[in-house]
Amino acid sequence: MDSPETTSGASVMTADQIRSLQPALVALLANFRNCFQREKTFGYWKKYILGLLSDLKRKSVESIALAARIPVRTLQEFLAFFVWDEKRADDTMLRLVA
Q1: How far apart are CA 18 and CA 59, in angstroms?
Q2: Which of 63, 38, 42, 41 is nearest to 51 (CA)?
Q3: What is the full DSSP assignment across 66-95?
Q4: DSSP class of residue 36?
Q5: I need a labelling partner for 92 at 20 to 30 A (CA). Which of 35, 37, 42, 58 fits?
Q6: Cross-strand bridge partners of residue 5
Q7: Considering only CA atoms, which of 47, 22, 24, 52 is closest in space to residue 36?
Q8: Exposed, middle or buried, 72 (CB in 10 Å: 0-12/13-18/19+)?
Q9: Which of 89, 82, 80 is nearest to 61 (CA)?
Q10: How far, in Å, CA of 21 to CA of 49, rounded?
């Protein structure tokens, strides 16, 4: 199946094509589990990343939380206050792309 093209001739992915990549993305994100002390915190991060990469028209915290069926306030607090190991996340990313 060919990808649609923009007016500039560049290929773009359809929503179905992007959705089909979700299992691979979830597997990739699993590499970052050890950057979070709590499974719940990792879960919020994963849902936030998946929301950013979804076909939502607005990529706001509110729209992502509602689509993921998370209380909006919880996702806001996750982004503002929850702690994860940023150095370990950076190291993991570098290891994955090297």
Answers
A1: 16
A2: 63
A3: HHHT--HHHHHHHHHH----HHHHHHHHHH
A4: -
A5: 58
A6: 11
A7: 47
A8: middle
A9: 80
A10: 13
CA distance 23 to 1: 20
Report the C-alpha gap between 96 and 6 in whole angstroms.
31
Beta bridge partners of 72: none
Amino acid residing at 15: A
List CB contacts of 38: < 8 A, sequence separation 6 or more.
none
Residue 47 corresponds to which tokens in the numbers above? 């849902």
Backbone angles phi, psi at 11, to 5 degrees: -75, 145
Full pLDDT tens readout for the chain, 98 residues: 555 666 666 788 887 887 888 899 999 999 999 999 999 999 999 999 999 988 899 999 999 999 999 999 999 999 999 999 999 999 999 999 98
**Whole-angstrom distance, CA of residue 39 vs CA of residue 29:** 13
